[in-house]
C-alpha cells in the first residue's frame, strides 16, 4: 500500500474525526485490509472501503500527539504513511 493523501490531517483527541485516506493499492476489497492505525490507535472497525485508492475511517479517543497512518493488507503487505495526522 502507498498512502499519498490524508484529509483532514488533524483531529480532536475525543475522536470522531472522519478521515479520507487516498493512495494506491489500499486493498482489493474491505476484507483485504487487516490493519489500520492512526497515530498508533487501531481504527480498523471504522473502516469504510470505497476503492483501492480511497478509504475512509473515523478516529476514536486517543492520546495527544502526532503520528503516521499505518495500513496492512493481505495482498500488499504493510506500509506507513510519510504524512502525519
From TrEMBL:
<dbReference type="InterPro" id="IPR013783">
    <property type="entry name" value="Ig-like_fold"/>
</dbReference>
<dbReference type="InterPro" id="IPR014756">
    <property type="entry name" value="Ig_E-set"/>
</dbReference>
<feature type="domain" description="IPT/TIG">
    <location>
        <begin position="1"/>
        <end position="85"/>
    </location>
</feature>
<dbReference type="InterPro" id="IPR002909">
    <property type="entry name" value="IPT_dom"/>
</dbReference>
<protein>
    <recommendedName>
        <fullName>IPT/TIG domain-containing protein</fullName>
    </recommendedName>
</protein>
<dbReference type="Pfam" id="PF01833">
    <property type="entry name" value="TIG"/>
</dbReference>
Amino acid at each position: 500500500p502507498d498512502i499519498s493523501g490524508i484529509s483532514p490531517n488533524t483531529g480532536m483527541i475525543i475522536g470522531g474525526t472522519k478521515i479520507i485516506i487516498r493512495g494506491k493499492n489500499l486493498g482489493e476489497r474491505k476484507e483485504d485490509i487487516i490493519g489500520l492505525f492512526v497515530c498508533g490507535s487501531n481504527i480498523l472497525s471504522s473502516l469504510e472501503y470505497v476503492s483501492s485508492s480511497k478509504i475512509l475511517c473515523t478516529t476514536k479517543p486517543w492520546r495527544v500527539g502526532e503520528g503516521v497512518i499505518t495500513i496492512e493488507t493481505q495482498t500488499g503487505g504493510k506500509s506507513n504513511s510519510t504524512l502525519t495526522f
